[in-house]
Every structure is written in structure tokens, then in C-alpha cells.
Write the C-alpha cells for this entry.
Amino acid sequence: MTAVAPLKSIDNTYLTMLCDAFVHLDSVITDGELGALLVSSGIQDPSPNASRHRRLGLAFQSQQDTDKNANSIAVFLRRTGFHINKRYGEDAYRKYRDEINQILTFAGYELDEQSEMKQTNPLATMYASHEAESRAKKLKEAILIRSLHPDIQMVCRSEYLTENNYFRVVQEALKLLMEKNKAKSQLHIEGPSVAEHAFGFNWGEYPVLTVNEFRTEVDQTEQFGYMCILKALFLMVQDENTKSYRFPWQMSFDDALDFLGVISYCHRKMDASKKAR
């Protein structure tokens, strides 16, 4: 029997985003079905009574750390796709594949029509019009000129620019930043409030993540200001109570580029932040 080649591990940020996707897929797969699929895929289920997001997050990360590759996760995604298609039909399967591929594409993978996880170019784009390709190229060039954070380039995709509106690019950039916030803080909190829980603090107490030495009043003022900027950005694209994403409004190239500059700043500060408790 030919040995299966190991698949490169998926970054924890994208594993967290996969957990988010499965939360949104509760209409096509139950918690009981997920548990059975985890076990049948060779993935340990250490917290079966936890919330869906935390349960899958712990299972994925623990198994991938043990295996040193993403093979077990690939098996799980394939078995889950087969199960959904067989039990719930093609529409449910299409919804599942679309949701998962929106995440996997950032990690350099995609599910093919048989739910096999295949490696692909993480910066490759789906089919888009010549106009959309031109808008994406122009935006990417401007991002490089401004030396914005590398993660910003990941959302500069023509499929997000099928219309002459740059809101979707900014929204996807903020989704990625929010997932990085959750992954780095190890907080299993949904929505914009994750910024407050990770970087907020009561006077005299340490936050979960600090953007500086957090020794002086000036440090605390900077920390508070960063938290406010971060939460305001998240609230711009997602409702804090319902967790639903905002209906897009018209955003110009220049406005989007300015927003992406602020998001780049937030990425750099978050990358350099330290766990304080």
C-alpha cells in the first residue's frame, strides 16, 4: 500500500476560522454527527460537551500537533462532505463546500468535488472578469508601495472585486484580523467583543494581551486606544449582538486603502503583542 504523503499543517488562525464555518453550518450537520465523524476520522474528541467552536478547535489543534500534519483534518473534511451529501443532499453539500473553501483557500488548500483536500496556491484567484482582475492588480500594487502587512495581500483577490466596490476586501481583511485576535489570545469568543476581552483591562490589572510593557500610565493609554480602534473596526463589519455581517455599503479605492492601512497597523501591533495572563 502506498503511504499517504503528509499535508502541511494548517495555521491555527485558519483552524479557528474552520471552527467558525462549522458553527455557521449547524443547519446541515448536528453536534452528534460531528462527534462521530471526528472519531471515525482518527481525531480525538477531548471536550465533547464544550461549545461546537471550542470542541472542534481543541480537537483539530491537538490532533494536528500530534500528527505534525493536516492529514487527519483532511480525512475529517472528506468524510463530513460525503455524509452531508448523502444525508442532506446536493444543496447542503454545496453550502458546506463553499463555506469550507472560503477558509482553506487562505491556507493553500481547497476541497475538490469529491471533498478531497488538495493543495493549491493560497494567492490564486477564482475566475473573475478582466475588470475585477484589473482592480485587484491595482490594489495589490498600492498595498506593496505602502509596505502594508503581508496578511493584507491575502485578501486582495479579484473575486472580492467583481463590482466597483472595495467594501468586501476590507471586510475580509477584518475577518482575518479577528481570527488572528482569537487565535493569539486563545479566547473562544465570537464577534467584535473579542477585542475588548483580549486587550481590555480594569485599571491595575493586566489584559490577556499587551501591546507594550504595560508599566506606565502612558502604556495603559496606548493599550486602551488600540483596543478601541480594534473593536471599532470589527463593529464596522459585524453586529456585536447577532454576529451577522453588515450589509455592504459603497467604498471607494482610496477609502479602502486608508482602512487597509489602519488594519495593517493593527496586524503589526497584534503580531508583536505578548500574552500577559
Notes: The mean pLDDT is 87. Residues 217-237 form the longest helix (21 residues). The chain has eleven helices and four strands. The longest strand covers residues 109-111.
